[in-house]
Every structure is written in structure tokens, then in C-alpha cells.
Amino acid sequence: MTVAQAVFPIDLGAYQYLKLDPANSTLTDEQRKALKANIELVRDAIVFFTATGAARGVGGHTGGPYDTAPEVMILDALFRGSPDKFVPIFFDEAGHRVATQYLMSVLEGSMPAEQLLSYRAAHSKLPGHPELGLTPGVKFSSGRLGHMWPYVNGVAMANPNKTLFCLGSDGSQQEGNDAEAARLAVSQQLNVKLIIDDNDVTIAGHPSDYIPGYTVAQTLIGHGLKVLEGDGEDIDSLYGLICQAINTDGPVAVINRRKMCVGIEGLEGSPHGHDVISVKAAIAYLEAKGRTEAVKYLQGIQAPKQNYTFIGSSDDLGSNRNVFGDAVVSVLATMTDSDRQEKVLCVDSDLEGSCGLQKIRTAYPEIFIKGGIMERGNFSAAAGFGMEKGKQGIFGTFSAFLEMCISEITMARLNYSNVLCHFSHSGIDDMADNTCHFGINNMFADNGLDDGYETRLYFPADANQMKACVEAVFFDPGLRFIFSTRSKVPYILNSDGNHFFGHGYKFIPGKDEVIREGTAGYIVSFGDSLYRSLDAVDRLKQEGIDVGLINKSTLNVVDEDMLAKIGNAPFVMVVEAFNRRTGLGSRFGSWLLERGYTPKYAYLATHKEGCGGLWEQFPHQGIDPNGIMTKVKELVR
Fold this sequence. Notes:
Strand content: 15-25%
CATH architecture of the largest domain: 3-Layer(aba) Sandwich
Protein name: Transketolase
Distance between the termini: 45 Å
Helix content: 25-40%
Structural class: alpha/beta
EC number: 2.2.1.1
Number of domains: 2
Shape: globular
Cofactor: Mg(2+); thiamine diphosphate; Mn(2+)
Oligomer: single chain
Largest sheet: 6 strands, parallel
Family: Belongs to the transketolase family.
CATH topology of the largest domain: Rossmann fold
Number of helices: 23
Radius of gyration: 26 Å
InterPro entries: PDH/Transketolase, THDP-binding, Transketo_C/PFOR_II, Transketolase-like_Pyr-bd, Transketolase_C, Transketolase_N
């Protein structure tokens, strides 16, 4: 049975469209019963349809939307009971709690329940963060974690006679712009009510362990907010606090204490609850609730597979983002204990498992800092450590968050800092979170002047080159940015079928490499676009079009010898997953013209909103092998 034919196996028609009046802060027995029934129904539905994402391999997030069901159910009833009093939007600064937005869209009739069965799938219009204008019923784009409160302040100023809510979390409140939002809300006495899920859990662990002394409540009190604290699972207390917040002028924060994934065996209180629930755990939960049809549906899901067979690269895959950590550990192992502790500091931003930094923490915990969800401050801390000659700061996070650190990067350069940065999840591959998590503006890091302190941008093509790159540049001075993808990538093969970057290979910063020679013209690529370009090149050669391929793993340095070689070819085409407006292709043509080279020129890159899913993002942007081959054939006509 296809998704289009399937029936959502949990009866959402059982939802009770309750109306509540904040003037009455005590629930009746009937209201309490209805709220509890709605909470259970919504939680069961969230567990089920987010688990379909797990079953199809696109991931997702279960714990956040599951946890905040009680407050969302109360807000929904308040919006319905007093529609003129509120801006009826469930603004949420933890964008990964998108399941809430999708489920509420269904309950208000904006889309059919069956659409939820395609949660995070390609072309389903249900990406991992809400996007305004894409999904029916979604009323805002959340962007990345901790970005909504400042925005909601502006919405409040546009609606001075209404109350607004912003759902938050102890994780999102770690972001520095929330401190700025708090001060503005207090100074302008904005009628914004923060409803914060405080479960002491983020991806990398428990904030009470890694940033002791920090509390959401005391922080917000320090900014001047009125703070109300309670048990998020006590429905009467929760409702009373929300009513108190509404009936209090100005900004108020309601902080709800609860365990992550309360009531879900194996996930309760665990950081694992942050991500998508496993199919096994979801089935156990749903069976205990008697949701047999939902269980059957989960058991029948088959994950879609990438059936295209790439040529020119290996069948086996390597995880560059994890190899980064392995490579750093191998370099650190060559240092004495005293030198290592004196000269190296690694600062994480709650993504150690995603960026490979957990390898460094496991091997050398004495040089590792769990910095929390504070990218700008953490980057600057690493840079400050690396201010002294001979010392190295190491920093890692997602590539999409590089944009948040531009000013700090400039300050690090002005202070001659030495920082080795790993920005994983670069480009678009395997990015079901979609557009707000695309790492496509990485060239922004190269924002210094021609005579400024050295900055180098590297994007290795496979795990072999990643290891060689880290080993080659680790002790270099200046700012070094190494990029990797979320997806695993195959190993690049030479014409003889052996690993191109295998035994004996040495990475030379600033030097481009000829992967395939050609007479018809050259494709220039890097990272995970390289093996796709290689597939296209080898297939074009089979068709009699002799195209060459260049690997430009150092993105911001002109290799004059290579530019002269390809500049005299009939055409040059850059293929990349970066932003077409800001990527390598946007400057490569200028490099050619400045030196008097005039081949036909084109560049393919990410140029439109994402489609969700995993590998599907590449053909969606026209930078898969078929798209590359089509463009080459236009150039050689």
C-alpha cells in the first residue's frame, strides 16, 4: 500500500476541540479529562509518525514535540476560546519540534492526516524544520535552534493589543541572541510569554553536567523577566501558570520541568530522546497503548534506497565527519602529554557526535570542553586559546551555523589566532532538515583582506583525503576551515580502479588535482560533488565526450598552474553543492577572466529551496550526474 492509499492508523477524529478562558485559571473535571485525552492522543500520534521517519531512514525528532504536548494542547484551547486575544501561532524556537506544527496543521484542517505518513520524505513538503509557504498550515519558519524569540518580539510590536507565545527549551535558551531578545522584551514590556520545556537534556548530554551554574530561570530573572516555574506534567499547575502569565502584563516565562520523553521506556531522561525514536521503541510504546494498526503500519515500511550505481568511485563508503576526529587524534598522539595539554584546546558546541569531536574527547578529555549550544562564544574561546603562537584551538559545529560566527571569525583573524575548524553537514546531501540546515554559504569564512592573516578553506573528497588534509594542515598557523558532509561518501578511484588518495598520497594545501584528463573541457568540483562529477565524466567519456575533472579541495586559493591548464580548454564548469550566489563558482569565472582566459564557462550549484529527503536533494538542484551531463552537452555543442 502506498502512502497515498494508506489511512492514518490513529483516529485523530477523537481530538476534542476544547475552549478555555484564561480568566478562569482552574480546570473543571470535564476540561481536565478532555485535555488529558488530547495529550495522550497527540503524543501517540507524534511517536507514530515520527517513527515512520526512522523506518524510512530520514530521521527526525520525537522527544521535543512529545514533551511539549501538554502546553500546546492548552494553547490550542486558549486560542479557540479567545481568538481575538492572541496571535494564534505556536511559535517555537526549537525548530526541530516540527512534528507539533504538522500535527496541529492536520487538526485545524489545513492538510490531511495521511500526509504525516511522509514525514521528512523527499518532496513531501514536510522537512525537519517548519518552512512558511511550503507546508499547508505552517505559519512561520523557525530557522535554527534559538532564533525565534527575537523575531517574535517584532511580531509582538506589530500586534500591541495581543498576547504572543514562544515555545522554548533549556537548549535553545543557551543561544546568545535569546539574551538580547530578553532585554528588549523587558525594556519594551512586550506581551510575549515564553513557555519553556526545561528537561536538562541536549544532544550531547545534560546541561547541569557540562555547564554547571547555568539555570534558565535565574538567567531570565537576571534579564528582568517574571519567571513562573512548575511541573510540566501536572496539567492543573501548568494551566494555572499559563493563565497567570497571560494575566500579567509584559514578558513572562513559564518554565516547565519534566524528564525528556517522560513515559517512554528506554528514552525517558535520556539524550537519545532528542532525536527520532527507534522503530523498536515506538512499536513497544504503541503496543502498550493498544495502537495495533499503527504498529502494523510501522512494521510494513520499507526504506527507499538509492539505486543509482556510481562509476569512478568505490562501493564502500567513509564518514569524513568522523574521520576528522580520528585524524586529529592521530596527530595529537604524536605530542607529549604536557605539550598537548599546553598547546591544544578543543571546544564543542553540543554536536560532538555529529562532528567527530567525540573521538577527541574520548582519547584526550583533558583538552576537551563541552561548550553547550553557544557557537559564537565557543568559536571565540577556541580562537582566544589559539591567539598565542604555537597554540591551536579546535572548534566544530554544523556548516549552516558558520553564518552565525562571521563576526567572531573576523575578530579571530584580527587577533592572529590559530584555529582548526571542522564544519560538518556541509552542502545539501542527506539533509532532511532542509533549507535552514543547508551548509551552503561556507565561502563566507573567507572574508578577510588580501593582506590579512591567512585563512584557508578545505573540502576533502573522501575519507583518505580527509585524513591527509588534517595531518597536513594541523600545525599550520592561521584559520583553517575543513568541511565535511553529513552523508558518507565513496572513495575516489583513479583510472586503474585504485584509491586516488590511497597509500603514499600527500595533501598539498593550495594545489588542485587532476582526477581525469580531458580534451573537450574540464569540470572543477570538490567534496561530495566530486564523486558525482566523476561518474558524469566517466559516462561522458563512454559516449565519446572527453571531459576532464579537477578536484579543488583548497577552495579559496588559486592554483596558477592548474588555472592556466584548464583556462585554455574549450570549457570550464564548476559543480558544487554550495550556494550558487556565494560559492566557488561565483568567483572562479572572475579568476579566469583576470588572467585572460576565456573558455566557455558555467557553474552548477544549489539554487532553490530544498525538497527534504536524503540523496534526493542533489537531483532536485540539478547537480546529480544527469544534470551535470546535460549541462556539459550544452557546452560542447
